[in-house]
Amino acid sequence: MAKVMKCTVCNSTEISKSQVKEKIPVGQDLVLVPIEVLMCQSCGERFYDRPTMRHLEQIEDDLAAHKRPLKEVGKILELA
Ligand SMILES: [Zn+2]
């Protein structure tokens, strides 16, 4: 039997897969990476399992090596 997963932040058991956009910093830029993660539906805390972590690490490596096609969707601005 699968044990019930509890949110480590708010103790809710309302945890399910959600489509999110993970922000990965590359130099001064941020790259949005759409992935599916387990997310607490109560407080929004995200939980990363090992395959998800590995997937993100792979994408980070690819981004650092400029192996992934990217499109510009906005700017990152800083208060002057
Ligand atoms: Zn929670």
| Rg | 16 Å
Unreliable residue runs: none
If helices are DSSP runs of H or I spanning 4 or more residues, what is the number of helices? 1
Estimated share of beta-strand residues: 25-35%
Indicate the structural class.
alpha+beta
Distance between the termini: 55 Å
Total DSSP E strands: 3
Mean pLDDT: 93
Residue share in helix: 10-25%
Could you say which small molecules are bound to this protein? zinc ion
Order of helices and strands: EEEH
Spatial shape:
globular
Largest sheet, in brief, is: 3 strands, antiparallel
Trace the largest sheet across and list its strands: 1-2-3
Describe it.
It is a single chain. The protein is of the alpha+beta class. It is built from one helix and three strands; from the N terminus they run E-E-E-H. The chain has one helix spanning 50-64, and strands at residues 15-26, 29-40, 46-47. Strands 1-2-3 form a three-stranded antiparallel sheet, with helices on one face. Strand 1 (15-26) and strand 2 (29-40) form a beta hairpin. The longest helix has 15 residues, at 50-64. The protein is globular. The relative contact order is 0.19. The model has no long low-confidence stretch (mean pLDDT 93). Zinc ion is lined by residues 7, 9-10, 12, 40, 42-43, 45.
Structural topology:
Layout: E1 15-26, E2 29-40, E3 46-47, H1 50-64
Antiparallel strand pairs: 1-2, 2-3
The structure holds zinc ion (ZN).
Q: Keywords, please?
A:
alpha+beta, 1 helix, binds zinc ion, 32% strand, 3 strands
Summarize the structure.
With 80 residues, the chain is an alpha+beta fold.
